[in-house]
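haha ok so turns out i had the wrong file open the whole time. this is the CORRECT one, sorry everyone. sequence first:
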Amino acid sequence: MNRPFAYGDKVLLLDTKQRRYLVTLVEGGEFHTHNGLFPHAELVGAPEGTVVRSSRGSTYTALRPTLEDFVVEMPRGAQVIYPKDLAPICMLADIGPGVRVFESGVGSGALSMTMLRWGADIVGYELREDFRNRAIANVRSFLGEDALDRYRVELRDAYEGIDERDLDRIVLDLPEPWQVVPHALDALRPGGILVAYCPSIIQVSQLREALASKRWNGTRSLEVLHRGWYVEGAAVRPDHRMVAHTGFLTVARFLG
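then structure:
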């Protein structure tokens, strides 16, 4: 999207300490921090990379937020799945254009947005109406109204059953994903894939027991660790801190 900023656009502002602020440009709007303010109008018509100065002399670089930026900074009700797990989930589930996905545990919509961005058509079940509304609002906010044509979220309990049939994928972020496995037998097409995100290894163990039949193939569980590196001249070393455990990913292929 190579065009100047306009009202209604989302902008990621970075200060000199790389602190991040996600704002939406509105007519008459102002960006405020303890370091001063500047009117949104200063960015309208400006290209990405523009540097603006606040009333107290602080500078901010303006960029369009990536999906990663938005997931980390977006409004949320439930805890989101972070980018280090979102991309592996989409790879393990083989998400692509036109793939029919059932998702449960929609939460704030981070995983939904990622799969929609990869081209999926999603039906979601969510127990809480506030989470459902937040997820739809976040999808609309970042991907636009057209994305909602491929996104339907119902206030339903996946533990009680799945109405959809011939699904390509089932993706779960639930406390007890093993309760969905019996319903997946009717909902998934042969060759379909189930992926579950579980914070606890006890959850993984129970899920693996539910998947331990000849109807499932290639079942495996893994976690993704994210370690950055400090690179400053000749000083090159791993960062002292890393994003280690967030959750376990379990994937299985349905044989029918």
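The longest strand covers residues 188-198.
again sry for the mixup
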